[in-house]
Amino acid sequence: MRRLIKNNVSWIGYIDWELESFHGDDYSIFNGSSQNAYLIEEEKTVLIDTIWTPHRFDYIENLKSEIDLNKIDFVVANHGECDHSGALQALMPELKPGTPIYCTANAVKSIEGQYGKRGWNFKVVKTGDSVEIGNNKKLVFVEMRMLHWPDSMATYMTGDNILFSNDAFGQHFAVEELFNDKADQCLLYKEAMKYFANILNPFAALVSKKLDEIAKLNLDIDIIATSHGAIWRDNPMQIVKKYAEWANAYQENQVTVAYDTMWEGTTKIAHKISEEIARQSPDTVVKVFNIAKSDKNEMMTELFKSKAIAVGSPTVGNSILSSVMGWIEFAKQLKFKNKKAAAFGCYGWSGESVKILQERLKDAGFNVIDENIKSAWTMTPEDEAKIPELVKSLLA
């Protein structure tokens, strides 16, 4: 069924309560998600995006129950990724021949790259281009390159002042009631931050520039209609302000301690470091994670919030544990800025782990301090005596 958004604009997407992961298994989902698509019925009838391939037939049957598909004048594809374009293959043969698809030049590449060249009538647009939809309203297109693909754009509907923002400002969060004011506020912002930290933070500098560009367009925005999660209708600019804050090398008074261990020696160091942080700075929030046993996206969200991290691994095979190596590589992809880091770990024979951790953390963009804890076999009183200085340097 359709769900009214405002006037002649309806939500016609899919709420996916059972979804557990996204981007393959690279992004964890614990509170469901949604693929939000929209139907505009002015003098022109317009579809804004579609939904993911697994639900394409449900989507099309839902559309058919609400509208004669021959009345659809054109489709807007804000982003070619398959969670937004997956139903196009099944939908386009159902529409009038030659039905236009408005999108960026890069979206043509991504859609044809995924589904083949099918002779679809692409109308390539760039920032500032517009199309009239009747009743003194029009759609204005705004390129959103690298937020989070090169083909991304947003579409602004004049008159009703709706920004169809695609992946910007969204969350992987199932909200049956659709709107931000109806959602659990704690979960809403938790999932919004997780989404930013794990998907958009690598492009934080571009986010800041794009927000400035949108501000200069002087758009009155009453609703931000996202492609995932809650639709922002109550003070929609609150999430725009949060994005501006998050994109500016965001951090809170928090330190994250992350490690993996073989025989618990590195665990003991991790716990002592966390205890010392709390002793030296009682107001600092401390988060401790075993990398192998914790969800990586939840950890990265906490890392995003942190001003510093301490990372530990024992030496194994003249290197570090593969779980820690992969975790640091993921952190590198997310391009965190202005965060300190310290290294620690145990060893039995050769003892390379701490040096390798420091090198890898520096390569990932962290400001690595010299102080470290390198324990032979298990932490000694001498090793433990070094922890206060490490913590002091990490907090400075």
Strand order of the largest sheet: 1-2-7-8-9-10-11
Architecture per CATH nomenclature, i.e. the level-2 architecture of the largest domain: 4-Layer Sandwich
Mean pLDDT: 96
Molecular shape: elongated
- Write down the domain tally: 2
Query: In terms of per-residue confidence, which ranges show pLDDT below 50 for 5 or more consecutive residues?
Result: none
CATH topology of the largest domain: Metallo-beta-lactamase, Chain A
Cα Rg: 24 Å
* Structure annotation, total helices: 13
CATH class of the largest domain: Alpha Beta
Helix content: 25-40%
Structure write-up:
By secondary structure, the chain is of the alpha/beta class. It folds into two domains: 3-246, Ribonuclease Z/Hydroxyacylglutathione hydrolase-like (Metallo-beta-lactamase, Chain A), CATH 3.60.15.10; 254-395, 3-Layer(aba) Sandwich (Rossmann fold), CATH 3.40.50.360. It has 13 helices and 21 strands. The protein has a seven-stranded mixed β-sheet. It is elongated, with a radius of gyration of 24 Å. The N and C termini lie far apart (56 Å).
Can you summarize this structure?
The protein has helices at about 55-65, 80-85, 90, 105-115, 185-200, 205-215, 235-245, 265-280, 295-305, 320-335, 355-365, 380-385, 385-395; strands at about 5, 10, 15, 20, 25-30, 35, 40, 45-50, 75, 100-105, 120-125, 130-135, 135-145, 155, 160-165, 225, 255-260, 285-290, 310, 340-345, 365-375. The chain is an alpha/beta fold.
